[in-house]
Design a protein that fits this description.
By secondary structure, the chain is α/β, with parallel strands linked by helices. It is built from 21 helices and 19 strands. The strands form 4 sheets. The protein has an 8-stranded mixed β-sheet, with helices on both faces. The chain has a 5-stranded parallel β-sheet with strand order 2-1-3-4-5, sandwiched between helices. Strands 16, 17, 18 and 19 form a 4-stranded mixed β-sheet that branches. The N and C termini lie far apart (171 Å).
Length: 804
């Protein structure tokens, strides 16, 4: 049988190493390492014999290197841990109590063995270097202070996973994992890393070994997670993927991520629940992350071998036998070199210090503090290993590269390399392959919709408000220009001016309330919120307060039937002023304690299944977030509501007054009803709709203000304009008709009497009143003169009495 071709130098190297192994110990000092390897056999949970073979080969290379430990010869005393804690601890104590002293521990192969051994070996001051224990529990330095590993920790896979998510714009991911400390610790770290990178963990589900994760997968599906990380041993992954098939969690919408250190065809030959084709439907194009076990460049390493040469030498060393655990063998090779280099550096330190202590003086009591020196040198160590650049972080974990693999057409291919300092390096032009061709989304497309006031609505009501302001200004000009006309003068034009100013402010408030972030900047809207809180209550008080004061005047006059009642203009101004002062006090306290500000509110999402998107609705709201909901607006509405109800009551009480001298009393009553009734109806409706429909809210509010203000304006001013115009069309005989003034107001003699007369009788009565008034004025003048004479006479009498 023809032997396979091998380079001549590989045979020479092997021969040299064998020669040194048999002859080198004659003149060198022996250093023995303890080795805990899982070598299979009866009762073993895992076979990693390839790691031991690589470690033995590394020992030969170290012992043949004249620049590394030239005065020493490394040996290893090996025990089979069988990947079981009990066997591992038994092997450790055998190593401990058997001669010679073991300077360091290589292994163990499995995390479940490394953990108890590392917790125990520290009490004998032994440094431990593993090459295949990946549990993140071993990263806790307080618990394992002297533990190092040349293979990456399980959580090392988190960085390439996050890099992939960022590469394809995925921000949401769900996790399902085996409820085992090995996986749980790494997944907990993954959760923390996601938060650091502002990525969202949609769901984190765990299941026990042998359990069918139906409920867990249903929860993930209900949360509509599309990118799913499955972290489990091979049999657990089979359970997850089979159940995922039955739940329809595969195809173009889903991406499954997993650790790809399982056997290549783990998804085949499932003996429960699913066929190979069904399993492949889920596993197709899965994305796997795994440590890079063998460097992919041709650079020489610390041993002088490159990756290709290492493979050839290893094959030669093992006679081509396929030992189990081959993927971890390079880490075993580098672990021996890490130990040898650390020992070499400590030996050089001792020599440079002219110390009488040598590394072979190590003992389990740490008499010469060699343990501290070994830990320090391992922590600072950096070298080019066969598995890549070797260095350790503060937790003793290997800082290592990773590779990204994908199942493409049933074959697992390497598609990228992840380097901590260089990120993803794609080795495949198309990067990842996706079912359906297009890159799947991490969930429904999230469309953010800002709910605001539509431009058309704003334009319509702004136009009405501008026209209203123009109309009110025209009324104001008329009221000032014709204030001496009796028909205007009798209705208290000064108060009408206040009402007009309030109406202008109401129209202005409609315009300001319609300006949102769709039209102006956020800072501007912040100021508008505060302005709105001041303008609306004060404008309402000026407009409605004037009507209220005039109605109150009519009510007082006609409720006092037996005596004269004099109410002057300043009385009405005092009423309006008092109402404004109450507004100012309320808003001032409001602004001082919790000023109103712009708050963005996010409403419940709307799902569009057809378009596969979620509509995220936001709106702006002027609110005081630090106060109980509706506190300040409730106080203001309560105050205004009480005023409205009282005004409506006064209007009802004076509904039968038709005295022409109080020429606009009926119109005032109608205006009050016009304001009160819509306000009582619209205000609660606006509060209910405020959260969901800002455009409808603005429409109702603006319509209520605009219509109410316009009707009030017209009821107060149009009758006077018509009357003045009618006067100008007549001969002026009506000029003396209405001589009643607020300086002489007398209530009717009998309650309920309606004073309706025709115009001729009214003119006669008015002339009679004028005549009587002149007579009264003459008599009043005469009485005044007589009173002056009486007072003068009394003063003279008083002087005479004093002299006497």
């Amino acid at each position: 049988m023809e032997l396979p071709f091998r380079p001549v130098w590989s045979y020479l190297t092997t021969l040299t190493l064998l020669t040194l192994t048999t002859t080198g110990t004659l003149s060198l000092t022996n250093i023995t390492l303890g080795g805990l390897f899982s070598l299979g056999g009866s009762g073993s949970d895992w076979d990693g014999t390839a790691i031991l073979k690589a470690a033995e080969m590394a020992l030969m290379h170290v012992n043949s290197d004249p620049d590394v430990l030239p005065d020493y010869f490394l040996n290893i005393d090996t025990k089979n841990s069988k990947c079981r804690p009990g066997d591992g601890m038994k092997g450790f104590f055998e190593l401990l109590y058997e001669e010679p002293t073991k300077m360091m521990i290589l292994g163990a192969s499995c995390s479940v063995v490394s953990q108890p051994v590392a917790e125990t070996s520290q009490h004998w001051n032994m440094v431990q270097v593993s090459s295949s224990s990946a549990s993140d529990a071993l990263s806790f330095r307080g618990r394992f202070p002297y533990f190092f590993r040349t293979n990456p920790a399980q959580s090392g896979l988190n960085a390439p996973r996050i890099a992939i998510m960022k590469e394809f714009g995925w921000e949401r991911i769900a996790v399902i994992h085996d409820n085992n400390e090995y996986f749980t610790t790494a997944i907990n770290k993954f959760s923390e890393d996601l938060a650091v990178h502002n990525l969202t963990l949609v769901a984190k589900e765990s299941f026990n070994a042998g359990e069918t994760p139906t409920v867990q997968l249903r929860n993930i599906k209900e949360k509509d997670a599309r990118i799913i990380l499955a972290s489990a041993y091979e049999d657990g992954l089979q359970q997850v993927f089979c159940e995922a098939y039955h739940m329809g969690m595969y195809g173009s919408k889903y991406i499954w991520m997993l650790e790809s250190w399982n056997s290549v065809d783990w998804w085949k030959n499932v003996t429960f629940g699913c066929t190979e084709e069904e399993m492949y439907a889920v596993a197709q194009n899965y994305v796997g992350t795994v440590f890079l076990d063998l460097r992919e460049d041709n650079n020489n390493t610390v041993s002088g071998l490159n990756a290709r040469q290492y493979t050839e030498v290893y094959t030669n060393f093992t006679d081509g036998l396929a030992y189990a655990g081959l993927e971890f063998a390079p880490f075993g090779y580098d672990a021996v070199w890490a130990v040898a280099l650390a020992l070499h550096r400590v030996a050089k330190q001792l020599a440079s210090e002219n110390s009488s202590v040598r590394i072979e003086d190590f003992d389990y009591d740490n008499t010469h503090h060699l343990r501290e020196r070994l830990v320090e040198e391992l922590s600072k160590l950096e070298f080019e290993g066969i598995s890549g650049s070797v260095s350790f972080d503060v937790s003793g974990n290997r800082v290592a590269p990773f590779k990204i693999e994908q199942l493409i057409d049933g074959v697992e291919e390497t598609v990228a390399i992840y380097l901590e300092d260089g990120g993803l390096k794609w080795t495949r032009g198309d990067r990842l392959v996706f079912n359906g061709g297009a890159t799947p989304r991490d969930g429904p497309l999230r469309e953010i919709v800002h709910l605001g006031i539509s431009p058309s609505t704003f334009i319509v009501f702004t136009s009405f408000a501008v026209l209203g302001i123009i109309m009110t200004v025209a009324f104001l000009i008329f009221n000032i220009s014709f204030r001496s006309k009796r028909v205007v003068k009798l209705s208290c034009p000064s108060i009408n001016n206040v009402i007009a100013i309030g109406c202008c402010m109401c129209y202005l408030d409609v315009i300001l309330a319609g300006l949102d972030r769709g039209l102006v900047g956020r800072d501007t809207v912040e100021y508008l919120c505060l302005a709105h809180a001041w303008i609306l209550p004060i404008s309402f008080t000026l407009a409605f307060g004037g009507l209220f004061a005039k109605t109150w005047r009519v009510h007082v006059i006609f409720r006092n039937k037996t005596k004269r009642t004099k109410i002057f203009n300043y009385h009405l101004f005092m009423v309006v002023g008092a109402l404004v002062v109450v507004d100012v006090i309320i808003v001032s306290v409001w602004t001082a304690f919790d000023p109103i500000q712009l708050v963005q509110v996010t409403l419940a999402d709307q799902v569009d299944l057809v378009a596969d998107k979620i509509i995220v609705r936001t709106l702006d709201k002027c609110d005081s977030p630090n106060s109980p909901k509706l506190l300040w607006s409730g106080i203001m509405f309560g105050y205004k509501g009480t005023l409205l109800m009282y005004g409506a009551f006064l209007a009802w009480e004076t509904r039968k007054v038709t005295m022409l001298q109080l020429n606009d009393s009926k119109f005032i009553a109608i205006a009050i009803y016009n304001v009160a009734i819509p306000s009582v109806i619209i205000t609660p409706l606006v509060l209910l709709l405020d959260i969901e429909r800002p455009n409808v809210t603005f429409t109702l509010t603006a319509a209520c203000i605009t219509v109410g203000t316009t009707i009030t304006n017209c009821l107060i001013f149009l009758p006077k304009i018509i009357a003045v115009w009618s006067e100008s069309q007549s001969d002026g005989s009506q000029e003396d008709q209405r001589i009643f003034t607020t300086h002489n107001q007398i209530a009717p003699q009998r309650p309920g009497t309606t004073l309706n007369f025709d115009n001729a009788k009214l003119r006669d009565k008015d002339r009679e009143i004028v005549k009587l008034k002149h007579q009264l004025e003459e008599k009043a003048t005469r009485i005044g003169e007589l009173l002056e004479l009486v007072q003068h006479f009394q003063q003279q009498l008083k002087l005479c009495s004093e002299k006497s």
